[in-house]
């Protein structure tokens, strides 16, 4: 029998129109979008379904994407497919925790709305940057940038794709040095801040205050945390981990390896795009990888997994 993980994408996966077909075809999904809009005082339909400039602004992106992932997941579960473990890339970890039973859906959505605002406003524009480093191992990048103050690794996405973060000049210096030492490309990312860097420690601390007001529940299944790439079974650890996550590296490649080592052989990416499926091709091609991003995907993927597993 297959051991299934539901995995959720992070910021950058959002796109106009995401989830519109779920809203139109499912009362469960419609209810999640409508309630999210009520709780946040936002026109969630316009934000997610129509072309607009707000969707790519961090303070709006995070709530929109988590709402969409949760609405899609509710439909998948209604069809009878459930995970044994969950995980999410950065922002996606909130969807993972909610699906694992640790947070109410509305609490996850309202928390990431506040998280997005904190992350967008914590560092003045222009002072921080991020860059994708292609064609170089994480360990080698760590060694090259070790003596450059103000730059660290933000994301271990997959072999050959690592993201660095920090002060703008430090990131630019690191890019040049990494290209001299074997990186194929160093691409500055169009982001509003140096996410997952120590520069956001203050934002994490403020988020910690928000999390203290959120009621958590015992986990029904475990999730894997970005911070350590380990299984979390005890919900009492979650608030501390989410506070730390804002300023610490996202260990996605290691998280996938942890789940595979624990017997997971089937991964279902739920959310817009195929970012995580792309990473999986470079992490491990031996596992089964599915993607649900449209209404038509649901019956096809659920049916195939049930048949196989």
Give the tags.
309 residues; alpha/beta; Malonyl-Coenzyme A Acyl Carrier Protein, domain 2; Alpha-Beta Plaits; 6-stranded mixed β-sheet; 47% helix; 16% strand
Spatial order of the strands forming the largest sheet: 8-7-2-1-9-10
CATH architecture of the largest domain: 3-Layer(aba) Sandwich
Enumerate how many helices there are, as a single number. 13
The fourth-level CATH homologous superfamily of the largest domain is Malonyl-Coenzyme A Acyl Carrier Protein, domain 2
Q: What fold name goes in the CATH topology slot of the largest domain?
A: Malonyl-Coenzyme A Acyl Carrier Protein, domain 2
- Flag low-confidence runs: none
Integer count of domains: 2
Q: Quote the beta fraction.
A: 15-25%
The CATH class label of the largest domain is Alpha Beta
- What structural category characterises the helix and strand content? alpha/beta
Q: How many strands, which pairing sense, and closed or not: the largest β-sheet?
A: 6 strands, mixed
Please report the distance between the alpha carbons of the first and last residues.
5 Å
Task: State mean pLDDT (0 to 100 scale).
Answer: 97
The counted number of beta strands is 10
N-to-C order of helices and strands: EHHHHEHHEHEEHEHEEHHEHEH
Outline? globular
Radius of gyration: 19 Å
Please give the share of residues in helix: 40-55%
What does this molecule look like?
The structure is a single chain. With 309 residues, the chain is an alpha/beta fold. It folds into two domains: 4-122 and 198-308, Malonyl-Coenzyme A Acyl Carrier Protein, domain 2, CATH 3.40.366.10; 128-188, Malonyl-CoA ACP transacylase, ACP-binding (Alpha-Beta Plaits), CATH 3.30.70.250. It is 47% helix and 16% strand. The chain contains 13 helices and ten strands. The strands form two sheets. A six-stranded mixed beta sheet has the order 8-7-2-1-9-10, with helices on both faces. β9 (266-270), α12 (275-283) and β10 (288-292) form a beta-alpha-beta unit. The chain is globular and about 50 Å long.
């Amino acid at each position: 029998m297959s051991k299934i993980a539901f995995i959720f994408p992070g910021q950058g996966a959002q796109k106009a129109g995401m989830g519109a077909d779920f809203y139109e075809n499912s009362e469960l999904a419609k209810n999640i979008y409508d309630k999210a809009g009520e709780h946040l005082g936002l026109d969630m339909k316009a934000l997610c379904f129509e072309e607009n400039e707000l969707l790519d602004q961090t303070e709006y992106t995070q709530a929109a994407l988590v709402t969409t992932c949760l609405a899609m997941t509710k439909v998948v579960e209604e069809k009878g497919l459930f995970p044994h473990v969950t995980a999410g890339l950065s922002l996606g970890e909130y969807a993972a925790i909610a699906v694992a039973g640790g947070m109410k859906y509305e609490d996850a959505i309202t928390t990431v709305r506040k998280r997005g605002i904190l992350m967008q406003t914590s560092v003045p524009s222009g002072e921080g940057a991020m860059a994708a480093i292609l064609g170089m191992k994480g360990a080698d990048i760590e060694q090259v940038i070790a003596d450059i103050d103000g730059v660290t690794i933000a994301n271990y996405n997959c072999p050959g794709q690592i993201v660095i973060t920090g002060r703008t000049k430090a990131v630019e210096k690191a890019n040049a040095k990494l290209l001299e030492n074997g990186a194929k490309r160093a691409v500055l990312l169009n982001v509003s801040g140096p996410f997952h860097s120590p520069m956001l420690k203050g934002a994490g601390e403020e988020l910690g205050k928000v999390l203290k007001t959120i009621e958590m529940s015992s986990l029904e299944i475990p999730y894997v945390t970005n911070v350590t790439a380990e299984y979390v079974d005890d919900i009492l650890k979650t608030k501390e981990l989410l506070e730390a996550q804002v300023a610490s590296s996202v260990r996605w490649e290691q998280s996938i390896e942890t789940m595979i080592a624990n017997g997971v052989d089937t991964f279902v990416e739920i959310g817009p795009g195929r970012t995580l499926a792309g990473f999986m091709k470079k992490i491990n091609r031996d596992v089964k990888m599915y993607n649900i991003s449209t209404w038509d995907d649901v019956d096809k993927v659920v049916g195939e997994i049930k048949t196989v597993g």
